[in-house]
Amino acid sequence: MNSMIEKIVALAPGAEVIEGMDTLVKIPLESFRKVAEYLRNGCDDKMDYLRDIVGMDWGETLGAYYYLESSQTYDRITLRTETSDKDEPLLPSVYDLWKTAEIKEREVYDFFGIKFTGNPDMRRLFLRDNWNGYPLRKDYDADSNPLDMTNEMNAEFADEYELDADGKETDRKNRVFDEDEYVVNIGPQHPSTHGAMRLRTSVKGEIVTKVDPVCGYIHRGIEKMNESLTYPQTLALTDRLDYLSANQSRHALCMCIEKAMGLQVTERIEYIRTIIDELQRIDSHLLFFASMILDMGAYTPFFYGFRDREMVLDIFEKTTGGRLIQNYNRIGGVQADIYPEFQKDVKAFITHMRGIIHEYHEVVTGNIIFTTRTKGIGLLSREQVIDYGCTGGTGRASGWSNDVRKHHPYSAYDKVDFKEIIYTEGDSYARYMVRMDEIMESMNIIEQLIDNIPEGEFYVKSKPIIKVPEGVYSASVEASRGEFAVMLESKGDKMPYRLHYRSTGLPLVHVLDAVCKGFKIADLFAIGASLDYVVPDIDR
Amino acid sequence: MPQGLAYLIEGLLVAVLLIVAYAVFAIILIYMERKICAFFQLRLGPMRVGKWGLLQVFADVIKILIKEIIRLKNADHFLYAMAPYIVILASILTFSCLPWNKGMQVIDYNIGVFFLIAVSSIEVVGILLAGWSSRNKYSLIGAVRGGAMMISYELSLGMVMLTMVVMSGTMSISGIVEQQADGWNIFKGHVPAVIAFIIYLIAGNAEANRGPFDLAEAEQELTAGYHTEYSGMHFGFFYLAEYLNLFIVSGIASTLFLGGWMPFHVSGLDGFNAVMDFIPGFVWFLGKTFFIVFILMWVKWTFPRLRIDQVLQLEWKYLLPLGMLNLVLMTVLKIAGLVF
Fold first, then answer.
1. Which residues of chain B make contact with A524, given a CB cutoff of 8 A?
2. Looking at the domain covering A222-534, what would its CATH class be?
3. Which chain B residues contact residue A297 at CB under 8 A?
């Protein structure tokens, strides 16, 4: 790690290492590509997983944070680069090093207007093509976009910006679909897109040749809203990201703010949070089972998942008052203590679930139609999932050990003994099996904790007005469908300067094109369901 | 009364009766499906309208009757409007071939089986037209899927029916039932008949466009497949035809394999046979038919949908060769006198 930083400093004169919670290196724009190439290919522990790109407006300059992680050593490093040209901000694209940058750079372009030279697809990602201005810039005028009641046409071209030798900017138009391609529009209103997600799909007969995801139908601008909310207020919005990881997302934000403030929470809080997180994971995976099999055309097993999920929701309701969205965590603890029969109910659920899981496997897992429709379908290699940043069950089904709970333990995960479920086939079946096995593993984790919840406070009091000291902070948790991370920059105010969430679903939608190519239309939905994305977390 | 007029009146009365029976069976089947799938799915099904939701389907029928039939801007209006009638026509024609009881049959030619195969395959034209004329990509994909699948599975269906014709020695539907007086075909024809029965159930399920072969509709993929753009009673016709086709497929299965309206007879046990004869023929027919309907519903509500290439592979690589072999086997056994 230290040798790597030394090398970066050598490569990039003027690079500045900023001490803080994370290793953060500030890199001048002109040597950024060189450093990125070195980190991706040159150094010993390859930084091959680009966790996220966070666009930033620092007032004087525009730029981005690049959060990197190594898939071998799990070391993390954050790069910061910026440009002072606010009228025509250009950054070099890194999509050829990390494939996931292709879509992340589109997001940054959409919100900050930073053009990434070399990226072949510089369309807006969430907003309309005729949107005025870039909303996450600090000088954005919120009134510049009155409600537009006209239809938005399909983008026929994607821009690609290049800098030629003498620094002149060129704009090349890349066709999204050829004129004679048969493009079927799937969504945003469609039974199997799991929300308002639109996939423009080019087909040859029954065979899918290209998928172009169109996001943004339910984008709420949560990251922009955060900048005018106090910290306790921002919490409420995390539950509305991935509604099946509501508790885990909120956990991440609370953890980040607590770390930043130096607030130490009690053991009891950590235990409760871990147990609720795992219950949430079971809840999400049961719904995954239900919706995946529904997307494949079987109706009955769908209700099995819902029947047993109901018990988890009942426990949530009794503990937190909420069923789908719990609003349970808060800065310094949880909203309310667990109720007296909590342990009994959770244990009853585990006993019930262990006794009934065989029904799932009998009706689905062993079914010949199910296995022929999933085995060998939608193949993703280990390199691909890392390149695309497909974390969670999707990554683990391709043999990438990426469990945040294992590699960067938080809360009570270092106190429990659990197995990270890894399959190596990388097909839809493996993705399905990972989730089914994780249900069992989550129950193991809960069992180890449930009887040992220490006595103590469920809430640690902090100052009435919460202010986070100046700095850059981050925290990540293993949410139900991958690594959910919170990236926070504070100026010491009671409101965040910038609060960004790593979407667990965006890479999963981005990878659809690569994974569905050559498979049938019916497979598109089976694969989509097995990737398990949730739209509100993509459209933040 | 002149003879011509008498024939006309008779024909009209039979037609009205047929259409009424068609509607009544559709209502019974829809109710049955909703209840059965509910029980498979840990639910109760319709419970609010009438006792145990008995009036629910009537309410639905009234609702669909008063719904607007939307005129699409870019559709081929003539074909678009014609498609549901072709589907319902094929379905009613096939329906009229069913033998309800001794002598209680609307159409009974000496080439009845042949007629049946011919009219039932008109339906695919309606599906293709519906998909083609809607100007909707989902509809088109659904229709092409439906066309490819139904034409393929008709081969197996024909092969199986031929097998049973070879065994019965007649193409007349009433004749086939009559010759099962001393035992149903599935018992008399043992091995080849059982194979034929299984092939028939699979192919018939595909022919009726029902899960796991419902890929022309494929709700999760194509929203509603070939009838995505239809509304009101035009959609209702497709819906009715789907349920009646299920009934027809089961009815033909019970005719060919389970003796149609013929009571359960064991040759030699005259007393037992006489007792069985007390149960009217149409009760036997309906009992057997609804039994098979139940089996097909069971399959539909359990299995995931097949993919188009799997469906075609199943037909061309497995069912059709097996059906052909089975036909040869049946012929050999028939010549050798090994089927009874």
1. 221
2. mainly alpha
3. 211-212, 214, 218-220, 303-305
Tokens representing B84 are 């549901």
B177: nearest Cα among B113, B120, B93, B233:
B113
Mutate to test the interface with A, among B34, B135, B220, B228 (most CBs of A within 10 A): B220
The alpha-carbon gap from B239 to the nearest alpha carbon of chain A, in Å, equals 18
What's the complex ipTM? 0.84
Pair B29, B247: CB distance under 8 Å: yes
CA distances from A420 to A362, A402, A444, A449, A530 (A): 24, 9, 12, 17, 19
Q: What is the pLDDT along chain A (540 residues), one digit of tens a residue?
A: 777 777 777 777 777 777 777 788 888 888 888 888 888 887 777 888 888 899 888 888 888 999 988 888 888 888 888 888 888 888 888 888 888 998 999 899 989 888 888 888 888 888 888 888 888 888 888 888 888 888 877 777 777 787 776 777 777 777 888 788 888 888 788 888 877 888 889 988 888 998 988 888 888 889 888 888 888 888 888 888 888 888 899 999 998 888 888 888 888 888 988 999 999 999 999 999 999 988 888 888 888 888 899 989 999 998 888 888 888 888 888 888 888 888 889 999 999 999 888 888 888 888 888 898 898 888 889 888 888 988 888 999 998 888 888 888 888 888 888 888 889 888 899 999 999 999 999 999 998 888 888 888 888 887 888 888 888 888 889 988 888 999 888 888 888 898 899 988 899 989 988 888 888 888 888 898 898 888 888 888
Asked if A298 is an interface residue toward chain B (Cβ–Cβ < 8 A), one would say yes
Domain boundaries, chain A: 2-143+159-174, 222-534
Question: Between chains, do A372 and B309 touch, taking CB under 8 Å as contact?
Answer: no
Q: Which segments of A361-456 does DSSP mark as H helices, in order?
A: 368-374, 382-388, 392-397, 404-407, 428-450
- Cα–Cα distance, A437 to A435 (Å, whole number): 5
* CB nearest A184 (choices: B137, B215, B218): B137
Is residue A298 a contact partner of residue A532, using CB atoms and an 8 Å limit?
Answer: no
CATH architecture of A2-143+159-174: 2-Layer Sandwich (3.30)
Contact B137 A182 (CB under 8 A): yes
CA A531 remoteness from chain centre: 12
